[in-house]
From TrEMBL:
The keyword Transmembrane helix does not apply. One of its GO terms (molecular function) is kinase activity. This is Glycerate kinase. The lineage of its organism: Bacteria, Bacillati, Actinomycetota, Actinomycetes, Kitasatosporales. Belongs to the glycerate kinase type-1 family. It comes from the Bacteria. Pfam families: Gly_kinase (PF02595). NCBIfam families: glycerate kinase (TIGR00045). Transmembrane segments: none annotated. Keywords: Kinase, Transferase. The keyword Cytoplasm does not apply.
Amino acid sequence: MAGAEGVPIGSGRRDCLFESKGYKVTDGAVTQPARVLVAADKFKGSLTAVEVAERVAAGLRRVVPGLPVDRLPVADGGDGTVAAAVAAGFERREVRVTGPLGTPVTAAFALRDGTAVVEMAEASGLQLLPDGVFAPLTATTYGSGELLRAALDAGARTLVLGVGGSATTDGGAGMLAALGARFLDASGREVPPGGGGLRALATADLSGLDPRFAEVDLVLASDVDNPLTGPEGAAAVYGPQKGAGDQDVAVLDAALAHYASVLGPEQAQAPGAGAAGGIGYGALLALGARFRPGIEVMLDVLGFAPALERATLVVTGEGSLDRQTLHGKAPAGVAAAARARGVEVVAVCGRLALPAEELGRAGIRRAYPLSELEPDPAVSMAQAGPLLERAAEAVARDFLL
């Protein structure tokens, strides 16, 4: 019986051959050398996905010096998506656009080989609002449309529109207006920006939309599949986190329903229509977008599959591992893909709110929360970097030694 390159199994030459390539040979058995893939999302409010990967790698190597570690920061379409793409080798492009309050902001998209990753939160996100300031009825996605147009101008033929973390509930009307649509009231005047302004909508003219959208592949990447309106819709579920009170939610839901009655109701209940304040609806109905779970799209774009082929262990994670994690968040997507390839997965997180059996069903062997090292949440967030390195040391001792 022959082994590598025809060398007989059990021979000294064969053992030396495998060992020279980094494999371990014990009593004739060949073990693949350890190689870790760190594919984690950000710890919101503490560490970016890039910083998480750096800290985990440092902790692992403190226990296993020289350990090969591939770092692939991931995102599910929300804030941090462009940063993850740039870390994977995309070029960062910046452009001045209209922010959610109507004032100019600097936003970025990522570009590589004709594919652009556009993060709507860069132009229309909650993080662009001053502390304590919300504009649930008037915040606009106009800047997101400008960002898409800039990506087209840069030569993109595939557009990945990551949606999440928005300050807006305007059904994507602002985005479409920036791309050439007109939304008019009964007097023929432009309706005011924001979801509240849609109450006055009488006619919608989409004939002026940028014709390039007929020639590109636009992917709506989202971690939510809510419809546009109703009790599970954009206003009811996500409006409160954007500053909408009960009365505001009722106004916005009715305005979005009216908006859909004018543009066309066929996409209003489609998965993802309610994403990011309804921008999903505008993209699906008017721009020919197709919906895909954000983490699936981003794993494809970031090159997760070839990185996974080299890995013997995957470390994923995010700030909070909870029930939302199981519904399209980055760690669940990473774990599902790794499990399909038979690669073991562990997770690091700030806090853990899932029992071991649910983690196991999601494909995560074990989780290492920072809260076990530091129970004070404020201290844990402030010291997330060093704590994460300690958690990674524990991962290395448990799974690599």
